Amino acid sequence: MTVAADALMAAPARKPTRHSMTTRVVIYGLLIVFAIVYLMPLVVMVMTSLKPLQEITGGNMFYLPHDLSFEPWKKAWGTACVGLTCAGIKGYVWNSVRMVVPAVLISSLLGALNGYVLTKWRFPGHKLVFGMMLFACFIPFQSVLIPMATILGKLGGIGQTLIDATGYSFGFGDPTVNLVLVHVVYGLGFTTLFFRNYYETFPTELVKAAQIDGASFFQIFRRILLPNSAPIFIVTVIYQFTNIWNDFLFGSTFAAGDSSPMTVALYNIVNTSTGVIEYNVNMAAAIIAAAPTLVVYILAGRYFVRGLMAGAVKG
Amino acid sequence: MILKAMLMLGATAVGALSFAGGAQAADSKEVQMLHWWTSGGEAAALNVVKQALAKQGYGWKDVPVAGGGGGAAMTTLKAMVAAGNPPTASQILGYYALDYADAGKLADITPLAKKSDWAKVIPTALQKFTTVDGKWGAVPINIHSVNWIWINKAVMEKIGGTEPKNFAEFVALLDKAKKAGVVPLALGGQPWQEATMFDSIVASTGGVDFYKKAFIDLDESALKSDTMKKSFDNLAKVRDYVDPNYTGRDWNLATAMVIKGDALVQVMGDWAKGEFAAAHKEAGKDFLCYRFPGTDGSVLYNTDMFAFFQVSGDRQAAQTALAETTMSPEVQIGFNIIKGSAPARMDISDASFDTCGKKAIADIKAANAKGTFLGSLAQNYAQPPAVATAYYDVVTKFVHGQIKSSDEAVTQLVAAINSAK
Amino acid sequence: MATAIDPIVTYAVQSPRRDMKDRLRDWIPRLVLAPSFALILVFVYGFNLWTLLISFTNSKAFTNFSFIGWANYARLWTWTFQTDPPSNWYTALVNMVLFGGLYVIFCLVLGLALAILLDQKIRGEGILRPLYLYPLALSFIVTGTAWKLFLDPGIGLERAVHDLGWTSFHFDWVVNPRMMIYCVAIAGIWQTSGFVMAMFLAALRGIDSEILKAAQIDGASAYATYRRIIIPIMRPVFMSALIILTHMAIKSYDLVLSVTGKNPGGAAELPSTFMYSYTFTRNQMGVGSASAVVMLMTIAAIMIPYLYSELREKP
What we know:
The complex is a heterotrimer.
Chain A: H1 3-10, H2 21-49, H3 53-58, H4 71-79, H5 90-120, H6 126-135, H7 145-166, H8 175-200, H9 204-212, H10 217-225, H11 230-246, H12 249-254, H13 262-270, H14 279-301
Helix pairs in contact in A: 2-14, 4-14, 5-8, 5-11, 6-8, 8-11, 11-14, 13-14
Chain B: H1 2-18, E1 30-35, H2 40-55, E2 59-64, H3 71-82, E3 89-92, H4 94-102, H5 110-116, H6 118-121, H7 127-130, E4 131-132, E5 135-136, E6 138-140, E7 142-145, E8 148-152, H8 153-159, H9 167-180, E9 183-185, H10 191-216, H11 220-224, H12 226-239, H13 251-260, E10 263-267, H14 272-278, E11 287-291, E12 299-302, E13 305-308, H15 316-327, H16 329-339, E14 342-343, H17 355-370, E15 373-375, H18 385-399, H19 406-420
Chain C: H1 20-55, H2 71-80, H3 88-118, H4 125-133, H5 140-151, H6 157-164, H7 180-205, H8 209-218, H9 222-233, H10 235-251, H11 254-260, H12 271-281, H13 285-312
């Protein structure tokens, strides 16, 4: 980073902030009211997860637990039954991680590259291509289940042939790999959108200067754009991680069974057609399921800093 | 920096993935079973099958997909079949099995059926779903029926009520409860629950022959008749006896109301027994089970079946094992005692079942002989899903007021069924 | 004030010798973009065409290719005008407008408001930001179930307020077929507005502080700065947010079913639930596909002009 940028980072300029006392009170007041509204359902969920079942079906949602119990949590993690296996959701969490991490990274990286190409290396028709990729965001997922299943089946067939020939399947036919493929494909529209809009306002002078200096396509990407993409990378990761982690439709349709992601396992614990619904275990399991995403949010928040390139380009 | 670290992590993960296990095909000594029995009680019942298979040396690969009365599981099944990778067997409901049979996707287990003469011990009406063109493709593990009412005994005694024998007495009983200050009817206002209750109301209002004509034969004159209109009138009448918060309520919260004594009665299939059992309540002591008033002698059933798919030769032994195990008396008894349903085989001793179970078993035998063993429309055993869901649409709209009169309801019912055929 | 940013034109620098290296350089961007574009062509546009194809057939439980022309569309057309009692399709369309409109508008407004408030040098931003964002971490099913219990008159909000003493308080929307869809909207807004806030916050933070400093020096008031400079600069983010919200509104299937308790009275029908139910539950794939196509066309009719106008303005 340039010296100028460093200097600016040390003393970031702020938007007009000479607020009067009343304005500050109003601002804080609004924020706190909203905070309470947002927090309320979570409080109810946590309280429900700590109550025994009779208290829930018998009383009102907002009563504090009478007989506080961590049983639902222990059950959700280690002993709740997902079908015939009663080992809680802990195994499935690993399935989800195995699936989400590659999917998020690959789709984000591709999105970044796409955004880079579409803004700094324009070619005739680039707007049409971008528009077409954007429109891909609107496909209703339910309508792709059957054709996708057919294609994944064919890939599985390739995998079987590879196993017979070489002993390795190279990932073809593995349900987790299938899910990664599906999520990457349907996340491309969004990641491209995020990065393209971000790079649109990225100063092109820097790229031009690097080109003149003889840097290649990838060098410019690695050395100039990527290091300064933290804010948008964080937003993209948050979005993709959340969507893929919480996806149920693709997970249940293409990876039911041992490779199920955690959402399918959670749904199996929470939903039952003609059995007893244990609301407390459900809430505990739901909070456990949401925990990794929450961690991502909290960690990612630190990167919401003021634009790092501010000041590196003087007019 | 962090970005680099993440990229490395991702690359390693991708690398690791590509050498992961291959396609998820089942072993030959393994039964891969798709089902939606994910709750504690139901899963415990299925476990009986798993243990029986383990004794024969077969492993079990569980593929549970919960929700929607099997909706999500059926989608998964469609995807698996489309991908050319069907499970060994799947839990399935009536007409969905017929769809797969018609598409030629089911295996042929007729030799097994002939060997053990299943045709003799399974109710005739049920065989419509297990057999297509004489070829067996599925076996039933249980029989549930929907025309039951469940009553809290203490409340019943408090209001001085007796078993209602017909619909008029039922309404009188509900009245008594209302005057005594309890919620007369615990209802969960969800489409499937309302339709399930309506099945019983129709059979009670018009008799079981009318039910057969209207819902099994789809006879238009029966559907348009005054009896159907009267059935809707009766539905409106019982709706007057529910509490104001019934909309959208889950079925087992309604059962909880009866268990606790806040409500007198629930109209529900015999899976409700599981709730009572989980609350440690005993049949005859804490709660009473009667056939829906006016339907005694008939059984409106639904059954859980295991359908077998066409798989490669080395997996067929596992299928045979599963089919025979499912139909074996030990499994039929063990499974159904836990699940709360009646065995699918009629030649099983009822000694280990509780009073309601004994009544269920006896009723099935009698109804099968008399020809009053009929599929429940609400539970997808009278008509294909398109018609059944059209039925749901009309019933739920009537219950919640979008359809305002019984005449309108009848017209809508006929129109919906015709357009769904 | 704002410096015009020229896009790079790769052909601008014409060196006397355009050797292999230069040619390769021209093609690398397109090669990088190509895989993503190809994936989208196949898995989005290809599948859409497949759905279109199926919509002209009599497919029931499985795909079959007996063509029946426009029959499925004719049915949808008739259903569009059945208002008393309302057909499922009619309810789905009406609800799409109500739910979609409220969801998108309120998320945008709330998200922007919270972002602006948070950007005012607030103490405790580190706590508030994840607080508004966390609802997105919860899966739709859990959100729906939590809100269903929360809004239940018997054991939720209304009962709690009654117990506090205010007995004439009525909030039985969730059990009232006419008002149910608004409860779904409330749950949805609660869930997603935090993410919109995060997007807007990232954008606010990315604004070049030179511009803001200049405005400050010129004596612009806070309000004018926001209106004239900041909000217009955020148009690309606005577009991203709009696209995401529309996508989520279309996708919402689990949320609807869990908030309303399986859609009693068919009052909370949405195109996504309609499409899924006809394709998978009712085994009427032809009608389901036709409804998916109609949904897509409607989105296209709104989004394509919008995207066109947004994309064409840039040089």
